[in-house]
TrEMBL record:
This is Formate hydrogenlyase maturation protein HycH. It comes from Neomoorella thermoacetica (Clostridium thermoaceticum). GO terms for molecular function: lyase activity. NCBIfam families: PRK15084.1. InterPro entries: Formate_DH_maturation_HycH. Keywords: Lyase. It holds the Pfam family HycH. It comes from the Bacteria.
Length: 146
């Protein structure tokens, strides 16, 4: 089961100026303020990466529930978004399971917890988690019926 899992954090946003006429410049500020993605480009920065097998071993140590299900969704979808709505359950699950993590898993947990705490203070931040196998492999699997 080769592959890599990579975590990305929203690092900045900008509006594609060619899509926003000058007479609706207020729309630009409104779109940025509420986070709509029409004409808004999100720039993501890689913050953490690990082998796919290590990722699933790590999250298998989380207690069963919403947080674990959320992170296990990566196997099905190949990508997932973590936003402000997911923060409380993820923090609780990571803190509960922290004693069972191996040293490297504790480093990942500490990194993810720092990001989640930052998201509590600034809800516009979000994370994207992706499998390196990408959409083409995912689509091929789905069309093969697997």
């Amino acid at each position: 089961m080769p592959g890599r899992v990579e975590f990305y954090k929203l690092c900045k946003r900008f509006v594609d100026e060619k899509d926003v006429p000058a007479e609706v410049q207020q729309l630009e500020y409104y779109a940025l303020a509420i986070g709509h993605h029409i004409g808004v480009v999100d720039c993501l920065a890689s913050i953490m990466a690990m082998d796919k097998e290590a990722y699933f071993k790590w999250i298998s140590k989380l207690p069963r529930g919403k947080a674990r299900s959320k992170l296990e969704g990566l196997a099905r979808w190949g990508e997932l978004e973590i936003n402000k709505e997911h923060v409380p359950v993820l923090i609780a699950a990571l803190e509960e399971a922290n004693a069972s993590f191996l040293p490297e898993e504790k480093q990942w947990t500490d990194c993810l917890l720092r990001l989640l705490y930052a998201m509590e203070k600034e809800p516009a931040i979000y994370l994207v988690v992706r499998l390196s196998e990408g959409a083409s492999d995912y689509c091929r699997q789905r069309t093969d019926g697997r």
